[in-house]
Amino acid sequence: MSVVTFLNSLIYSPSNLWRVAKSILGIIFRHPIPGTSIIAILPDGKIVLVRRSDDGCWALPGGMVDWGEDIPSVVRRELREETGLELVKIRRLVGVYSSPERDPRIHSICVVVEAEVEGEMNLQDHLEVLEVQAFPPTSLPLTPMSHDHYQQLQDYLSGSTTIV
C-alpha cells in the first residue's frame, strides 16, 4: 500500500477521521480541555437537567471554556445557551473531575459548581440539547447519564467536595 493510499484511507474514512484528528490534536496540544458542569438550582429547589442530542442521555448543563473566559463566564454562557436560565450566583464548588476516561470524546477537566438560577427554561442550543427539564432532588433520572454526571450529582447530593 502506498503512503498516499494509506493517508487517504485514514482521512476519508469517517471512523478513522476522528481517531486521526484526535491523535493529531493530542500531539499538538498535549493538554486536557477545561470545562464546567452546572448543578442549576431553581428558586423552588428543583435541579435543571438537559437531554443531550449526541447520546440521548440526561446531563448537567455545561461545556468547554472558551479562550479568554473564566469559570463564572462559562457558567453564565452555558446556562443561557442550554437552558435559557440566568445565573444569580455560584453557591459552591462541588468538585473537579479530571479522569482521562470521564468524557469519551476528549480528556477534559470538569469544574462542577452549584448555581442559583432564575428565569424561564427555554432551550436555545438545538444542536447539542434535545430538551431541558427541572426535577425535584428526590426524583432525578440518575441513570443512565452522560459522561460522569451521575457521579457529580451523587457527590453534590451527599454534600461532599470531590477532586478526582
Automatic annotation (TrEMBL):
Gene3D superfamilies registered for this protein in UniProt: Nucleoside Triphosphate Pyrophosphohydrolase
Chain segments annotated as coiled-coil in the UniProt record: none
Gene Ontology molecular function terms on file: hydrolase activity
Keywords: Hydrolase
Positions of the Nudix hydrolase domain: 31-157
Highest rank taxon of the organism: Bacteria
Alphabetized InterPro entries for the sequence: Nudix_hydrolase, NUDIX_hydrolase-like_dom_sf, NUDIX_hydrolase_CS, NUDIX_hydrolase_dom
Family assignment from sequence similarity: Belongs to the Nudix hydrolase family.
Record's protein name: NUDIX hydrolase
